[in-house]
Write a structure and sequence with these properties.
Helix content: 10-25%
Mean pLDDT: 82
Largest sheet: 10 strands, parallel
GO molecular function: hydrolase activity, hydrolyzing O-glycosyl compounds; pectate lyase activity; polysaccharide binding
Cofactor: Ca(2+)
Structural class: mainly beta
Catalytic activity: Eliminative cleavage of (1->4)-alpha-D-galacturonan to give oligosaccharides with 4-deoxy-alpha-D-galact-4-enuronosyl groups at their non-reducing ends
Protein name: pectate lyase
Radius of gyration: 33 Å
InterPro entries: CBD2, CBM2/CBM3_carb-bd_dom_sf, CBM2_carb-bd_dom_sf, Pectate_lyase_PlyH/PlyE-like, Pectin_lyas_fold, Pectin_lyase_fold/virulence
Low-confidence stretches: 1-55, 164-198
């Protein structure tokens, strides 16, 4: 009691007047409110800082005219993402001499005046860092056909190097904010110090949109669009190296096959009877051959544009007839030879092959095999070889062919000025 009494007495003598106590409480409330306001402002500033962090971006576009004739041409676009992964992309560029796109593939093309816009085709919209994809088109031209001067991918200029873009913070302020404290030592935004290796990664394999069982060879007339369905042979062969297997597709002169996946067994793939085009065709497990050019005209051309092939015990593409074989924007892995000019056909011809912008993934034997005694030639550019540190994959093998069915004799390999045409800058190892 005495202790409590003493405390009570002390409180009675030290208690402040009511007016003073009210003023003190208001001052504390004001100070607390100011602290809360400052804390809110700092939180808002922190949110703004996070939302404005920079994102790495950049791209590279290789533009080429792969063929040209009076009034028209075919163009190719090899697109490499040098920045953060993309789930979709839009490429923009402008022509300067009145060229007009008439058709395209591996993307949706539109044109307004000189400005061309290409959006991904869905199956090739995802591009990881360093990943590449390709698109192609046909177009008209008049007096000149210069290449576009610049390209943008998702609004970012394609300079061939990574860049840094800082997004503008989003959101609506509902009231005038208190002054935001200034950050005196901001955390530096990380930047990419090195660009991805030259050549990038090959485009991702597509996912089949459906399935078709093929019990008899499909004869293609005009343009056949498979809409990325998987075509699986039944009763056409076993998918090995037997010579009596049937093709899944057969194309007459001028035929076009596009957006097709050929499943296992691959049997004898695709036959082209003369000039033909295969766009965005994929072989999941190559059988005897993925595709064969037959015919008898020296002016015929078989064009492979986009797509890929896996698991070829021997050849991927077989060139039996004369003419030119073009392979571009293509990927191959686990294979024997990507291209072979027939070494022992009963009818032999001078043949040529052009291999452009191709990704080659080990294991593999050779990219091309040609017969020098018949005057064959092979030209290479933009070749990226992946996973072959010991460089076992030959770029170009040379043979002495024959027309009596004997095994052709290999006479050498490597670049020269007549048959195997390439330089070290045309080949990139990763």
């Amino acid at each position: 009691m005495l202790s409590n009494g003493r405390i009570l007495t002390r409180r009675l003598f030290t208690r402040k007047p009511l007016t003073r106590r009210l003023l003190t409480r208001r001052r504390r409330i004001a100070l607390l409110g100011g602290a809360l306001a400052a804390s809110t402002a700092l939180a808002a500033a922190a949110v703004t800082t996070v939302s404005a962090q920079a994102a790495a971006a950049g791209c590279r576009v290789a533009y080429s005219v792969t063929s040209q004739w009076p009034g028209g041409f075919t163009g190719s676009l090899a697109i490499t993402n040098l920045g953060d992964p993309l789930t979709a992309w839009t490429l923009k560029f402008s022509f300067t001499a009145g060229q007009q796109v008439t058709s395209g593939w591996n993307g949706t093309f539109s044109q307004s005046g000189s400005a061309v816009t290409v959006t991904d085709a869905g199956y090739n919209g995802a591009l990881g860092t360093g990943a590449s994809t390709s698109a192609g088109f046909n177009a008209t031209w008049t007096s000149a056909n210069p290449a576009p001067a610049s390209f943008t991918l998702n609004g970012v200029a394609c300079t061939g190097n990574p860049t840094t873009i800082t997004p503008t913070p989003t959101g609506t302020r509902t009231s005038a904010p208190s002054p935001t404290p200034t950050r005196t030592s901001p955390t530096p935004t990380p930047t990419r110090t090195t660009a991805p290796p030259t050549g990038g990664n090959p485009p991702a394999w597509p996912t089949a949109t459906g399935s078709v069982t093929v019990t008899a060879t499909i004869k293609v007339s005009g343009t056949y669009d498979g809409q990325l369905r998987r075509y699986t042979a039944s009763g056409l062969g076993g998918g090995d190296q037997d010579e009596d297997q049937q093709p899944v597709f057969d194309l007459p002169s001028g035929g076009t096959l596009q957006n097709v996946i050929i499943g296992a067994p691959g049997v004898d793939g695709i036959h082209c009877e003369a000039t033909c085009t295969l766009r965005n065709v994929w072989w999941e497990d190559v059988g005897e051959d993925a595709a064969t050019l037959k015919g008898s005209s020296s002016s015929q051309t078989m064009t492979i544009d986009g797509g890929g092939a896996r698991h070829a015990d021997d050849k991927v593409f077989q060139h039996n007839g004369p003419g030119t074989f073009i392979i571009r924007n293509f990927q191959v892995s686990d294979f024997g030879k990507l291209y072979r000019s027939c070494g022992n056909c009963s009818s032999q011809y001078k043949r040529s092959v052009q291999i452009q912008n191709v990704w080659v993934t080990s294991p593999g034997s050779a990219i091309a095999g040609i017969n020098t005694n018949y005057g064959d030639s092979a030209r290479f550019s933009g070749i990226t070889i992946i996973g072959d540190s010991s460089r076992k994959i030959s770029i170009c093998d040379k043979y002495t062919g024959n027309d009596d069915g004997d095994e052709p004799v290999k006479t050498g390999s490597g670049a020269d000025s007549t048959y195997c045409l390439y330089s070290s800058s045309d080949i990139t190892y990763r």
